[in-house]
Amino acid sequence: MHQANRIDSAAKSQSVGAASEPEVCSVILTYNEVDAPLECFRTIRRQDYAKHRVIVVDNGSEAPVYEALERSIPAESLVRIEANKGFTGGMNVGIQRALETACEYIWILNNDVLVPDGHTLRALIKTMIDSDLGLCTPTIVDDYDPKRVRRLYGYSFDEHLWATPLNDADDYETRRVKGQVVCLPGTALLIKADVLRQLGSLDEDYFIQWEDMDFGLRAHKAHVPSASVTSIEINHGFVPAEHRGLAYHYYDARNQILLRKKHLCGWDLYKSLFWGLFRIREIMKWHEEGGRAPANKALMLGLYDGMIGRRAARAEFNIAKHQEWLIRLTMILVDAMTKAVK
Fold first, then answer.
1. Of 181, 206, 238, the domain-final residue
2. Rounded-to-integer distance, Cα 226 and Cα 189, Å
3. Signed CA dihedral, 76, 24, 152, 250: sign only
4. CATH (domain of 227)
5. Does 45 map to a domain?
6. Is the domain of 124 the same as that of 259?
7. Among 67, 144, 276, 334, whose Cα sits 20 to 30 Å from the Cα of 99?
């Protein structure tokens, strides 16, 4: 049974009139891929929304890949970056292009997003206007495993800044109404242009991973109203962690540390780092049990770099012996302290 106060856009028939609808710019970022971004581009272009332009940012792909995109995407919609600037840097190029136009809303999209309903954007904009939101997202449907379809409505943070994915609509709504810190995923995030001017763009220190959580925390601190629209769904090409590359494991670990250092201080930071390391220790054990040594070492390198405050992009993810020894010693101490606390 849906709660009465849940933000819903079922009244699609009362859509924003074409004459009065605000301008929207969608930004799709891609790197060394052709099929996924082209399909995403096509579904976004099929939106029944007149004042809508689409920008595809190529994030330094190899020449044959870019040429394939160039053959299928109109020149006015394609932006080329010479070198890979990461998700944050690449998306910021697209966001800046969008802000230079007259658009009032910017829709940032992963390149593996599919929007099956042509009325999705119109319904989202209506929800933004009716509810006076600064940020909103449709429900993200991850159907990598057809036997276990996952719906993502957002993330809830505890006092230690540990993010819990909210996969149940009622749980999401309960936490949102209670005023808990709920961040929206950046997979298909619709943002009011004025909010981006107020908060700034994505923090490029993160490169990839956790930049949406950082943006959500900044929005929360600035009292920007946000919501996941539970009645609208889009599809996302989710890939489980065990099938991802080393970069994912490195940046996921490193950026959790950077996020805590940025948003907490003093004793709150120390407590957050301790419990964060405790949770990450469980992930390390999971990698060890699964025989994923390279992923585990990339994760440990991420922890090391996060602790020393490294923010630059990494091309290689090989951890030195002394770095690995220091992280393993740290985890022994975390295990000992955890037993003492319990």
1. 238
2. 10
3. positive
4. 3.90.550.60
5. yes
6. no
7. 67
Helical residues (DSSP H) of the chain, grouped into ranges: 35-45, 63-72, 86-99, 120-131, 169-177, 193-199, 211-221, 246-263, 266-289, 293-308, 321-341
**Phi and psi at residue 240, in whole multiples of 5°?**
-60, 155
Residue 309: domain span: 242-341
What band does 166 get if pLDDT is binned at 50, 70 and 90?
A: very high
C-alpha span between 341 and 314 (Å, rounded): 36
Let me know whether 109 and 251 are in one domain: no
- Residue 61 placed within a domain: yes
The pLDDT score that the predictor gives to residue 335 is 84
Indicate if 181 and 112 belong to the same structural domain: yes
Give pTM, 2 decimals: 0.90
Are residues 49 and 63 both part of a single domain? Answer: yes
Q: What is the DSSP string of 135-153?
A: EEEEEEEE-SSTTS-EEE-
Which pLDDT value is given to residue 312? Answer: 83
Residue with tokens 């004793």: 267
Tracing tokens 């999971």 back to the chain, one arrives at 286
**Same domain assignment for residues 151 and 73:** yes
Helices 35-45, 63-72: inter-axial angle, 10-degree rounding = 20
Residues 127 and 252 in one domain: no
Question: What token pair was written down for 237?
Answer: 């090409």
Q: What pLDDT does 168 receive?
A: 93
Pairing of strands 135-142, 226-236: parallel
Nearest Cα to 329, choosing from 304, 294, 302? 304
For residues 214 and 206, is the Cβ–Cβ distance under 8 A? yes
Average pLDDT taken over every residue of the chain = 90
pLDDT band for position 329 (cuts 50, 70, 90): very high
Number of domains in the chain: 2
